[in-house]
Design brief:
The complex is a heterodimer of chains A (668) and B (471). Chain A has 668 residues and is of the alpha/beta class. Chain A folds into 3 domains: 4-92 and 174-320, P-loop containing nucleotide triphosphate hydrolases (Rossmann fold, 3-Layer(aba) Sandwich); 100-173, no CATH class; 348-438 and 517-667, P-loop containing nucleotide triphosphate hydrolases (Rossmann fold), CATH 3.40.50.300. Chain A is 31% helix and 23% strand. Chain A is built from 22 helices and 24 strands. In chain B, strands 1, 2, 3 and 4 form a 4-stranded antiparallel beta sheet that branches. In chain B, helix 6 packs across helix 7 (186-194). Chain B has a domain at 244-470: MetI-like (MetI-like fold), CATH 1.10.3720.10. Chain B has helices at 9-29, 32-43, 45-63, 90-94, 96-100, 144-182, 186-194, 202-225, 238-274, 276-290, 294-311, 319-354, 357-364, 369-405, 417-429, 436-463, 465-470, and strands at 2-6, 67-73, 81-83, 88-89, 118-121, 127-130. The chains are: A alpha/beta (668), B mainly alpha (471). Chains A and B meet through helix 13, strand 18 and helix 14 of A and helix 13 and helix 14 of B.
Chain lengths: 668, 471
């Protein structure tokens, strides 16, 4: 084909030498056409980033390419000498990375950094250079580019920095842009902006994009073709529409089934048993064999590539059989949660919670202002129910969780738990009350002391609360708890780092359960995990809620998790709750303009659903200087004059929802 | 042999430190996160070879730290011996010949004659001005000028063969032990070690040990007949002085750390963990302390102690005790001036750790502050403490030399490399130059500091989590 831009053949990249090199990329074939968006999809550790780095020849010192060919428009990249390769990098192909925060030099202005990229590739200096930089900044949609040129990276927000990175990547007018998880570190509304920008640029310049991601939603949003990677190999390749309708490989099908959404509320999510095999061994069998429910005798020899049509193929024996389809595994119907009756008083009642952090300045550390991280949040949770707190990063949702647990002392407001006023409790009284409220953190590795054995970690809470009888009984209980969360009994005498991410999160859940809590604050417990592992944890949480009658305050930015798990949703913006209501009604018909924009920006793993994305302008303002009036009015598409003047009061709608918006107030 | 043990202050502390190290070793061997890095240390070639050298220094230092009153032959009939008033150490006892064979004044290394001309009265009554024969060095030679070279060579060769023999014996014992541990034949174990196929580089350890043993044996042989490194102004053996200085150097390097550690760890972690006024108080304390020049503080403290000691001369039973107290005081004052660096490091680390999720989780369980510090913060800053201690060691050994040179270090009667260098100042100015005091102290100090530095590099590489990932 003449329009093939990049052709990768049988690429093999190994990491480390010695007797057991890690075969990070083990025979990858790719073909990217001009002007298309090609998505490389896979879970962490499957080798997708290594593939991209091999193409750019930017491997870490331990890595080396042991075989294969990379052809960019006819030139073999792997044979180029380094000085020629340097021209190709940034010239004909360029790359943007996941972390825009660490990819920019903090001591140089934006203009200098983009200018450098331009100078290297176009040799321009002086006036034309500045003009070109300005042009690039405009192209990536930076408002007021003349001023921004002379600013430093720290003065820009995360989304802006990623735009700058894209501008730098565009400086050499590349044919191919490799985007390695370009939006993973960004919020949904910003992610929507960046994805739209990439699409626009592609339309204008006709470059091809190799998009590396783990997010099925992002793939559905922007990709033309998809390749699924698993354990160093591509196992499925298809057109985007076909892939989302009819994934052929059992692994891809499982991935779809493990995605949480509202439709699966009543059932458990299907999970992929086991974990990705270690890549430091040669494989003779199919790499997926241990986790596949449909494995049969043939799978003991590795399956070859089965071409199913032009640009479509699967690495599986079952693919040849057209009628084959992994049946939705019969899942245990989850019994209806034990409802805390509406008439009863709520387990937790938060009233006008405020957490302000003072800003100190000067030699005498005078307080010159406050960061109003949480500014008057009210919510209530009944026993056995889940309330989701949704919002973008920096909106104060984590602070709400910690404020409730009294890990951060609230500045004002009341937190009533089962009749006790937590904010007034001090010392021993508070300490003994702590057993009832527990927390699960986002990063399971950081939330366990690496110097302690798992047994000691789980036991710590019991010891501190003086429950669970003597040492022997406590040990027994620890074993029980670990079994309950699906871990082997010998986990007790091992260290946290010996477990995988999902298992670590299970340990954290077991630790929280050890003290028989009644409310658990889950602070993004699945956002650091892969989709299939996320499903395991969500199932576990749901099952525990049913058996123990736990209440959850679920802090997240992932709307599909909310739809699957929550009973009630509260949407936060800049320290305040803007909309609160029952989950189905709120997600189906959001009333607050911010909720509407947020929900529309969430990528859906279904390319057929062409919804209207409401693009918000700009970024969330700093909580140190919130805008006057309604906090949302500078970005609101339907703002009215009154919004600038005062903050809207809470409007209670007929379906029990509470919204803070003048527009909704008017409509009644 | 002994007339009652004497436990000096520093002796007590050094054995306390030893006990502490052993207890920590047992504790660490049960904890993977502590055992792992140490395993890396003993798997590094530089690590084991410096460990062997350091072990030699430590053994000499420990032997020199067991003090007692020796028994002196009694004048009275019926009583065999009485307790002597002087205090010597086990090491002194082992090298009694070195200690007791005093010459009149300077003599060069391995010399047979004094370094200064004297008027000698001959048997026939005539007077000759010449270099007189030494009392001990080369006294067994009939014709010093003719026999000297052959005798030195012979003694050297005897020492060499003895050293090889001892190495062979020790090496075989080691191999047998290893074979037993690995459950394989002696031959297989020997082959594995000699071909360097073991995980722990035993071959390197054996070679280092062999070289050391040969050096020791040669030195022993040569010092039976000669003064290996010459004698000083009052005719004392310089080799003996250099060996005695090992204890002083080690003490300064380790006891200072022992003195400063509790303060640095406690205050550093408290400042970082509690923040607020506790932090302010501790921070102001150490910034104030830090802004007083260290040498000034040390000089003031040592001078005050000197005045105290001359006013209360009766309180000290022996010269050794007096010198010991001064050494201890020096350690303390060096500790007081040097804890701020570690404290500052720990404050920062504790500040970072208190925000970590697992500390927050512990707080959510209602775990008390003390328990959190003990269980979550302390174990996670221990690597910093260890790295600092090992890195500081060599600096402190050198600091002693500098301080003694400017006369505010250890007691002048105490053997120390600093005092040797200090006396060398005059010796270097004299004609012909007396160079062996300086050379001896430099040689011993250099070996110790170099091994300590190399060892600390290995330790830091093994314990620093940031470096661990890059390998």
């Amino acid at each position: 084909m003449t329009d093939t831009l990049l052709k990768v053949e049988n690429l093999k990249t190994w990491l480390g030498d010695g007797e057991h090199p890690v075969r990070a990329v083990d025979g990858v074939d790719l073909e990217i056409r001009r002007g298309e968006t090609f998505a490389l999809l896979g879970e962490s550790g499957c080798g997708k980033s290594m593939t991209a780095l091999s193409i750019m020849r930017l491997l870490p010192p331990a890595g080396r390419i042991v075989g294969g060919e990379v052809l960019l428009g006819g030139t073999s990249l792997l044979d180029l000498p380094e000085y020629r390769m340097r021209e190709a990098r940034g010239g004909r192909m360029s790359m943007i990375f996941q972390e825009p925060m660490t990819s920019l030099n903090p001591v140089l202005t934006i203009g200098r950094q983009i200018g450098e990229a331009v100078r290297v590739h176009e040799g321009e200096i002086g006036q034309p250079l500045a003009k070109r930089v300005l042009e690039l900044l405009k192209a990536v949609g930076i408002p007021d580019p003349e001023r921004r040129m002379n600013e430093y990276p720290h003065q820009l927000s995360g989304g802006m920095k990623q735009r700058i990175m894209i501008a730098m990547a565009l400086a050499g007018k590349p044919d191919l842009l490799i985007a390695d998880e370009p939006t993973t570190a960004l919020d949904v509304t910003i992610q929507a902006q960046v994805l739209a920008l990439l699409k626009e640029l592609q339309r204008d310049t006709g470059m091809a994009i190799l998009l590396i991601t783990h997010d099925l939603g992002v793939v559905a949003e922007v990709a033309d073709r998809v390749a699924v990677m698993y354990a160093g190999q591509i196992i499925e390749l298809a057109e985007c529409e076909r892939f989302f309708g009819h994934a052929r490989h059992p692994y891809s099908q499982k991935l779809f089934q493990s995605l949480p959404d509202a439709g699966k509320r009543a059932s458990q999510l299907s999970v992929i048993a086991g974990s990705v095999p270690d890549l430091d061994q040669p494989f003779s069998a199919c790499r997926f064999i241990d986790r596949c429910e449909h494995a049969f005798a043939d799978c003991q020899t590795a399956p070859g590539w089965t071409e199913l049509g032009p640009g479509q193929g699967v690495r599986c024996y079952l693919a040849g059989k057209p009628e084959f389809r992994v049946s939705m595994t019969p899942v245990k119907a989850v019994q209806a949660p034990a409802m805390g009756g509406e008439g009863l008083s709520p387990l937790l009642n938060v009233d006008q919670l405020k957490v302000h952090f003072p800003i100190h300045k000067g030699v005498f550390r005078r307080t010159v202002g406050h960061v109003k991280a949480v500014d008057g949040v009210s919510l209530s949770i009944f026993a056995g129910r889940t309330v989701a707190l949704v919002g973008e990063s920096g909106c104060g949702k984590t602070t709400v969780g910690k404020g409730i647990l009294q890990l951060i002392r609230p500045t004002a407001g009341r937190v009533q738990f089962d009749g006790d006023e937590l904010t007034r409790l001090r010392g021993a009284a508070l300490r003994s009350r702590r057993a009832d409220l527990q927390i699960i953190f986002q990063d399971p590795m950081a939330s366990m002391n690496p110097r302690m054995l798992v047994g000691d970690i789980v036991e710590e809470g019991m010891k501190a609360q003086r429950i669970g009888g003597n040492a022997l009984q406590r040990r027994e209980r620890v074993r029980e708890l670990l079994e309950q969360v699906g871990l082997p009994g010998d986990a007790v005498s091992r260290y946290p780092h010996e477990f995988s991410g999902g298992q670590r999160q299970r340990i954290c859940v077991a630790r929280a359960l050890a003290v028989d809590p009644r409310l658990i604050v889950c602070d993004e417990p699945t956002s650091a995990l892969d989709v299939s592992v996320q499903a395991q944890i969500l199932n576990l949480l749901k099952q525990l809620q049913n058996s123990h009658g736990l209440a959850y305050l679920f802090i997240t930015h992932n709307i599909s998790v909310v739809a699957y798990l929550a009973d009630e949703v509260a949407v936060m913006y800049l320290g305040r709750i803007v909309e609160r209501g029952e989950v189905n009604r709120l997600l189906a018909e959001p009333r607050h303009p911010y909720t509407q924009a947020l929900l529309s920006a969430v990528p859906v793993a279904d390319p057929a659903s062409k919804r209207e994305v409401i693009r918000l302008q700009g970024d969330m303002p700093s909580p140190a200087h919130p805008p006057s009036g309604c906090h949302f009015h500078p970005r609101c598409p339907v703002a009215m004059p009154v919004c600038r003047e005062r903050y809207p009061a809470v409007t209670r709608l007929s379906d029990g929802r509470e919204v803070s918006c003048f527009k909704v107030e008017q409509e009644g | 042999m002994t007339g009652g043990l004497v436990i000096l202050w520093t002796d007590g502390l050094i054995f306390l430190l030893l006990l502490f190290t052993v207890v920590f070793g047992v504790y660490a061997s049960r904890r993977e996160h502590l055992r792992g890095p140490w395993r890396l240390v003993v798997r590094s070639r530089v690590g084991v070879s410096t460990l062997v050298v350091l072990a030699f220094y430590v053994i000499v230092g420990l032997l020199d730290s067991i003090h007692f009153h020796p028994l002196a032959p009694s004048q009275e009939a019926g009583v065999e011996s009485v307790r002597s008033g002087e205090v010597i150490s086990l090491f002194d006892h082992l090298v009694t010949p070195l200690r007791e064979r005093h010459e009149k004044t300077y003599s060069a290394p391995l010399a047979t004659h004094l370094y200064a001309k004297e008027t000698i009265e001959l048997a026939d009554g005539s007077v000759l001005r010449d270099y007189p024969r030494l009392q001990f060095g080369g006294a067994h030679l009939e014709d010093p000028h003719g026999d000297w070279a052959g005798d030195v060579l012979k003694l050297g060769l005897i020492g060499l063969s003895k050293g090889l023999l001892v190495t062979l014996v020790v090496g075989n014992i080691l191999l047998a032990l290893l074979a037993g541990r690995w459950r394989m034949g002696f031959g297989d174990a020997a082959r594995a070690v000699l071909w360097g196929r073991t995980i722990v580089p035993w071959r390197v350890a054996l070679v280092t040990l062999g070289v050391l043993l040969i050096l020791v044996m040669v030195s022993i042989e040569l010092s039976t007949g000669y003064h290996l490194l010459g004698t000083d102004k009052v005719g004392e053996d310089v080799f003996y002085q250099a060996l005695k200085s090992i204890r002083t150097g080690l003490l300064i390097g380790t006891l200072t750390t022992l003195v400063m550690l509790p303060a640095a760890i406690l205050l550093g972690i408290m400042a970082g963990y509690f923040r607020g006024w506790v932090d302010d108080l501790i921070q102001y304390t150490y910034t104030t302390l830090n802004s007083i020049p260290g040498v000034l503080l040390i000089a003031a403290a040592i001078l005050m102690l000197q005045i105290y000691m001359s006013n209360h001369a009766d309180d000290f039973n022996s010269l050794v005790e007096r010198a010991d107290l001064r050494l201890l005081f020096l350690c303390i004052i060096l500790g007081v001036t040097s804890w701020t660096g570690l404290c500052r490091l720990l404050r920062g680390e504790a500040m970072k750790l208190r925000e970590v999720d697992y500390v927050q989780a512990a707080e959510a369980f209602g775990v008390g502050h003390f328990q959190i510090i003990l269980r979550h913060i302390l174990p996670n800053v221990l690597h910093i403490v260890l790295i600092t201690v090992v890195l500081d060691f060599s600096g402190l050994v050198l600091a002693e030399a500098v301080l003694s040179y400017v006369n505010i270090g250890v007691d002048p009667t105490m053997n120390s490399w600093g005092n040797m260098i200090n006396s060398a100042r005059l010796e270097m100015a004299r004609e012909p130059v007396v160079w062996w005091s300086l050379l001896a102290s430099m040689l011993f100090m250099f070996t110790l500091v170099l091994s300590a530095n190399l060892f600390s590099d290995v330790v830091r590489d093994a314990f620093d989590p940031r470096l661990r990932n890059s390998r």
